[in-house]
């Protein structure tokens, strides 16, 4: 369980998070939605201590991650798999080595065990043959999927996705949505999906949190999202060309 | 007030951050397993790949120094072997290390800053961190160690090639024979000179790689930021190389 308690963050005088509180429950898929530049990525980076708040606390499984040593923080981070906005594959390595990297670094598995594991992960993202290719040879969508394979290689308890479907065609987006949903069902992980793609939200999330003006403006289940009368939220959703209402899809 | 900020506060803050980064990197020094492969790779790219250009530059500076020294020593009263006695210590004490340093500041410094800067702006460093790795240890330690280990080797090559170039060109131009040149070198040889040169090259190696890592690590602002960091790394490396050169000369000679 991740608990965010009233965090504030500003960058050179510009306030990005202005008192954000949010709980992420065990086993759920939570979508964090909001306009571009609203601070979604910043909020996500607080959950693994890549950024630390100016005020407020972030608890992961009860531990305040900003009150512990760097060594302890790194241990906690090993429970996380993170899919970064651009994939963040290591471009000095091919796809196989990218996925193998966490396994080689943090486990004592033999090369053949690792190869098997990598193959399983690449098959999960439906890219069984890209192992020898370097990131530069992959398309944007393939890169994200390989990055996803790397993120799940250590079977993390939490997976954070930063815009998993942005910039992809609808079909690839769908594949990724199906993947995320499949992973959260199969691996029983807690997933946090940062996105501004309402289609994704409606198809994969259990709950959504809408970040606006530096705060969590609205949070609730997908069912509640359909019923919400909140003007700002409806405006955001409408801009995504999705109509929600009492008539559930 | 502004003057205070630009002249004192900001440089001090930078220095603090630089120290912090190095400190956190070298906390992982004991964990050899995590960086030795990377280090070998860096040693090849810093050392082996730089050999041709270093040899070329050192060879030419040796030749030019010889020709110019010969040009200045026109008096028939001064024995010719003095040329060797001037060129060789100059190479060993100053030119070999500085020429190596300048070339590597451009070549290695810029490359390190570009690599690490790109990793920063494409979130690869965040990815390393998010896995639970100490990214500074993983990225910075192997590069600095490779620099410290390879610079002295390159320095030695530069010194030998430079002296060889000087002796060769003097001989070919009929100014001074190789044996006279070496005679002069022997006469003026001080065993501390090469030691000083090696110390200097170790310091240069550290200066260039650590500054470039620092600059790369702090990159912000996409591809443009990487470009900025690349130039900064080369410029700062050169500036601090000169400062280090002077400080070492004052303290050790
Ligand atoms: N390291 C940083 N330094 C300075 N400003 C930052 C930093 N990270 C984020 N910001 C600023 O914080 C604001 C929120 O950024 P963030 O990346 O969280 O937006 P986002 O909601 O993820 O947007 P997008 O959907 O476009 O990814 C932006 O205005 C950005 O410029
Ligand atoms: Mg973002």
What are the main properties of this structure?
heterodimer, A: 249 residues, alpha/beta, six-stranded mixed sheet, four-stranded antiparallel sheet, 38% helix, 25% strand, globular, B: 253 residues, mainly alpha, 9 helices, 85% helix, elongated, binds adenosine-5'-triphosphate, binds magnesium ion
Put the structure in a nutshell.
The complex is a heterodimer of chains A (249) and B (253). Chain A is of the alpha/beta class and 249 residues long. Chain A has nine helices and ten strands.
Can you describe this structure?
The complex is a heterodimer of chains A (249) and B (253). Chain A has 249 residues and is an alpha/beta fold. Chain A has helices spanning 40-47, 70-77, 95-106, 111-124, 140-152, 170-186, 198-204, 222-227, 231-239; strands at residues 2-11, 14-24, 29-33, 55-60, 63-64, 80-83, 158-162, 190-195, 207-212, 215-221. In chain A, the strands form two sheets. Chain A has a six-stranded mixed sheet with strand order 6-7-8-3-9-10, sandwiched between helices. Chain A has a four-stranded antiparallel sheet with strand order 2-1-4-5, with helices on one face. The relative contact order of chain A is 0.17. The mean pLDDT of chain A is 89. With 253 residues, chain B is mainly α. Chain B has one domain (2-252). Helix content of chain B is 85%, strand content 0%. In chain B, helix 4 (82-121) packs antiparallel against helix 9. Chain B is elongated and about 70 Å long. At the A-B interface, helix 2 and helix 3 of A face helix 5 of B. The structure holds adenosine-5'-triphosphate (ATP) and magnesium ion. Adenosine-5'-triphosphate (ATP) binds next to helix 1 of chain A. Adenosine-5'-triphosphate (ATP) binds at residues 11, 16, 34, 36-42, 85, 163, 196 of chain A.
